Amino acid sequence: MPSPAPRVTHAYEGDLVLFLIGVRLHQPWRVGVVGRVLAAMPRMVAELEPNRDEAERGEAEHLGFLGARYLLDGGHPTVLQYWRSAEQLYRYAADPGREHRPAWKAFHGYAAKAPGAVTIWHETYVVPAGGLESVYVGAAGFGLASLGGTAPVAQRGERARQRLAG
Predict the structure, then answer these.
(1) 144 contacts: CB under 8 Å, gap ≥ 6
(2) Beta strands 65-73 and 150-152: pairing type?
């Protein structure tokens, strides 16, 4: 009989910010608005990922971005982002020299011409160190484990309650 797949948990330590951002497409035929909105987030993530890698090599100041995953919620795009702190997320969002601020200002201009075409939404969750729990059985190439590596479940506790408490 084959041995069961190993159970692992994330190896990430410290505070974490989970940032969800998405777009609801109400009038997909409004290609000018929808296309611009859908193109903006990949540009931002494409700016953030090289910074993360450069910072890990000591070549740049870390903006705090840890990684992103693209999801579809009923056909509507959602991006799940991991950040080290809310302050770093807000600093990035407000920086006029980065992709987000100019994209946000532009959105208000062209969205006013097609009100109701899209809804942009976001939710921010600040999770203090020790407030994270995860388990992965089999390949662990998703979520926090894909960003911060894995550790044996026994290292944090066999049960979810134990992992969350410690």
Answers:
(1) 10, 12, 16, 82, 132, 134
(2) unpaired
Q: What is the pTM of this model?
A: 0.88
For every one of its 166 residues, what pLDDT tens digit does the chain have, with 9 covering 90 and above? 666 778 898 889 999 999 999 999 999 898 888 888 888 889 999 999 999 889 989 999 999 999 999 999 888 899 999 999 999 999 999 999 999 999 889 888 888 888 899 999 999 999 998 898 999 988 767 888 888 888 888 888 788 788 877 6
| Ramachandran angles phi, psi of 125, nearest 5° | -120, 120
Residue type, 132: L
Residue 48 in tokens: 């953030």
Q: Beta partners for 127?
A: 16
17 close to 82: Cβ distance less than 8 angstroms: yes
- Which residues on neighbouring strands pair with residue 80, listed in sequence order? 20, 69
Tokens 């920086």 locate to 95
CB 102 within 8 A of CB 90: no
